[in-house]
Amino acid sequence: MEVLKQNRSHPIAVEDQVCIFYAVTHDFLKEVEVRHVAEYEEGLYERMAAQHGDVLEEIRTTGQLSKETEEKLKMALEAYTRDFLKTK
Q: For 37-87, how does the pLDDT look when each residue is reduced to its tens digit (9 = 90+)?
């Protein structure tokens, strides 16, 4: 829904869209309260940019996730989600 609701003058980068879509479709947000979803997304984008640029670069340049990159994304989401839930 966030991708569909995005502001056209400030679109969400495709690599960020893929990260949040992957998180949603693989149940990483199932324990995140609805009121914290926007904060989760913002923090996820920041953390991915700061710590997982290789994952974002592959998504950005190829539009795909290789098995290796998908595994890195999954591990990054697991760590981020665990850390995020500890603060809530």
A: 999 999 999 999 999 999 999 999 988 889 999 999 999 999 999 999 999
The single-letter DSSP state of residue 13 is P
Cα–Cα distance between 85 and 88 in angstroms, integer? 5
Distance of CA 28 to the CA centre of its chain: 10
Architecture of domain 2-86: Up-down Bundle (1.20)
Whole-structure pTM value: 0.84
For residue 82, the surrounding DSSP H or E stretch is helix 67-86
- Rounded CA-CA distance 74/10 in Å is 27
DSSP assignment of 8-76 equals: TTSPPPHHHHHHHHHHHHTTTTTTS-GGGHHHHHHHHHHHHHHH-HHHHHHHHHHSS--HHHHHHHHHH
